[in-house]
Specification:
The protein is an alpha/beta fold and about 210 residues long. The chain is built from 7 helices and 5 strands, in the order βααβαβαβααβα.
């Protein structure tokens, strides 16, 4: 059996697009993109979901908490689920929050730091490095509920893919641009509706098949 880890934020956890700050709900498990991957790839694959609401790439959040730093938990997570054959990382959306003041390149570079951790310290099956797929989050917007939180983030989100592609090529990982397959819900401009979760799962499953073929 091949083990796949999905490491991400609220869109990996399965957050339903929010109309109000008190309407936080989670998609049904079959509707979340990691579950779609598991369904598509079949019983020879074990798909592990590690999604945390608010998780950044490598930045401490001064409001939501330092535990949301994706670098802090990555190595313990990888070791606890070892051996891993495949790691899928989709992070960067929360880095667009205005509180961080980051540019698109800095966000991609943060994702790159996670890739370096995997390549430097992690072993997969039989001591081999796990394959890594970096998923660039789809552009955000239009913003409603989160217009202040993500002020200035829409334009930066549209430039993420170019920098993710550069970082991915430099570090030798596989890349998928979520924006080629899905769009954020107009309800809040940040999260994926159930049908978009499903579409993303299908796209990632196809990519994994191609890589492992």
């Amino acid at each position: 059996m091949k083990n796949i880890l999905c490491y991400g934020d609220s869109n990996t956890w399965g957050m339903v697009p929010m109309a109000t700050v008190t309407s936080a709900e989670r998609h049904r498990q079959p509707d979340r993109w990691p579950s779609v991957i598991a369904d598509q790839l079949g019983p020879e694959f074990s798909v592990i979901t590690e999604g945390l609401n608010g998780r950044t790439t490598v930045f401490d959040d001064p409001i939501d908490g330092a535990h949301n730093n994706g670098r802090t938990y990555l190595l313990p997570c990888l070791e606890s689920h070892a051996p891993l054959d495949f790691v899928i990382i989709m992070l960067g959306t929360n880095d667009l929050k205005s509180r961080f003041g980051l540019g698109a390149y800095d966000i991609a570079a943060g994702a790159g730091q996670l890739l370096k951790l995997i390549s430097g310290d992690v072993r997969g099956l039989n001591g081999l490095k796990p394959q890594v797929l970096l998923v660039c989050p789809c552009p955000i917007g239009p913003l409603n509920l989160f217009s202040d939180v993500f002020a200035g983030g829409v334009e930066k989100s549209q430039r993420l893919h170019a920098y993710y592609a550069q970082i991915g090529a430099m570090l030798g990982c596989h890349l998928l641009n979520a924006g080629d397959h899905v769009v954020c819900s107009p309800v809040d401009g940040v999260h994926l509706a159930a049908e978009q979760q499903h579409a993303l799962g299908l796209a990632i499953a196809d990519k994994v098949r191609d890589i492992l073929a």
